């Protein structure tokens, strides 16, 4: 099983991505949550162009990917789950949950550190919110994320199967919770006790500082509730809220691939909203998610 998954990891992940993407795209057509405001063709071309660029870059720089690091750790007995005997199913669950927690911490970090926010604001600068937003990340942030994942795998020692399951689940939930889809309110209310729903995560993409700096989860809703970063709804409502970053509204800057790639290198690093305590005061940094 381990060897099969390791050998076919790329095909498994690609198949899952394509299948879930198609289902979410159909759902967005059948039951959209919000009316889109800019050209879908231009946005999708740029956002999916980033996906292709990031995939090629990762395969070029890290050909073995995360599963290769997991196999390396297992061969050498590295990591907590390789040192201590844990039942296989429990080890798998612990690994997926722990990796999800690290992704949550990483997400908070890229909001809290101004230099890293410069990279992450590529994700937030999208003027609309749909499933392609869930795959829109600057290549430098993708590389940073992979290095953090490698370090976590070496410390934790998850199996190859656990890593592939986590990667598939993370991609699936990122597409799901960035979807411009409508869920019955009662279902959303119950589901978000366990998983991050589209309405829950959409709050995180608001132009308002305190809303942007909430609901950091991609998969499990537990972490935001546990650490006090959970926000139920946007003040303006889901139809009325503004998506993106207030000072980055030019489509040529945020919806065209050259502008997106250059975005982290624009503007000075000054204050950033997550470090403020008085949300009523204006932000000191036009580059933050004011």
What's the Cα radius of gyration? 19 Å
Question: Order of SSEs, N→C?
Answer: HHHHHHHHHHHHHHHH
N-C termini distance = 48 Å
Point out poorly predicted stretches: 284-290
- Give the percentage of residues in beta strands: under 5%
DSSP strand count: 0
The biggest beta sheet is recorded as: none
Overall morphology: globular
Number of domains: 1
Oligomer: single chain
Helical stretch count? Answer: 16
What is the residue-mean pLDDT, rounded to a whole number? 91
Structural class: mainly alpha
Instruction: Indicate the percent of residues in helices.
Output: 55-70%
Brief overview, please?
With 290 residues, the chain is an all-alpha fold. It has helices spanning 2-7, 9-30, 40-61, 65-75, 80-83, 88-112, 114-124, 139-156, 160-177, 185-191, 198-202, 209-212, 222-227, 237-240, 251-254, 257-262.
Question: What does this molecule look like?
Answer:
With 290 residues, this protein is an all-alpha fold. It has one domain. The chain contains 16 helices and no strands. It has helices at residues 2-7, 9-30, 40-61, 65-75, 80-83, 88-112, 114-124, 139-156, 160-177, 185-191, 198-202, 209-212, 222-227, 237-240, 251-254, 257-262. Helix 2 (9-30) runs parallel beside helix 9 (160-177). It is globular, with a radius of gyration of 19 Å. The N and C termini lie far apart (48 Å). 38% of the residues are buried.
List the helices and strands and how they pair.
Layout: H1 2-7, H2 9-30, H3 40-61, H4 65-75, H5 80-83, H6 88-112, H7 114-124, H8 139-156, H9 160-177, H10 185-191, H11 198-202, H12 209-212, H13 222-227, H14 237-240, H15 251-254, H16 257-262
């Amino acid at each position: 099983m381990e060897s099969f998954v390791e050998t076919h990891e790329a095909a498994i992940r690609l198949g899952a991505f394509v299948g879930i993407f198609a289902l979410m795209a159909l759902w967005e057509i059948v039951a959209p949550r919000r009316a889109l405001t800019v050209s879908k063709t231009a946005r999708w071309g740029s956002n999916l162009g980033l996906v292709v660029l990031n995939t090629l870059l990762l395969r070029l720089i890290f050909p073995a990917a995360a599963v290769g690091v997991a196999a390396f750790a297992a061969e050498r007995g590295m990591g907590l789950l390789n040192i201590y005997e844990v039942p296989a199913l429990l080890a798998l669950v612990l690994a997926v949950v722990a990796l999800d927690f690290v992704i949550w911490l990483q997400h908070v970090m890229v909001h809290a550190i101004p230099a890293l926010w410069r990279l992450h604001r590529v994700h937030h600068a999208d003027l609309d919110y749909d499933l392609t937003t869930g795959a829109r990340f600057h290549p430098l942030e993708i590389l940073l994320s992979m290095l953090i994942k490698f370090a976590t795998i070496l410390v934790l020692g998850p199996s190859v199967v656990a890593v592939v399951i986590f990667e598939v689940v993370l991609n699936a939930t990122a597409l799901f919770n960035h979807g411009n889809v409508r869920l019955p309110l009662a279902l959303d209310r119950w589901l978000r006790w366990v998983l991050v729903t589209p309405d829950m995560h959409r709050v995180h993409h608001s132009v308002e500082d305190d809303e942007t700096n909430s609901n950091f989860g991609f998969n499990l809703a537990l972490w935001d509730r546990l650490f006090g970063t959970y926000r139920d709804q946007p003040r303006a409502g889901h139809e009325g809220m503004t998506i993106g970053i207030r000072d980055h509204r030019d489509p040529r800057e945020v919806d065209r691939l050259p502008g997106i790639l250059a975005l982290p290198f624009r503007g000075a690093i000054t204050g950033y909203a997550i470090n403020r305590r008085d949300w009523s005061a204006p932000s000191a940094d036009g580059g933050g998610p004011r």
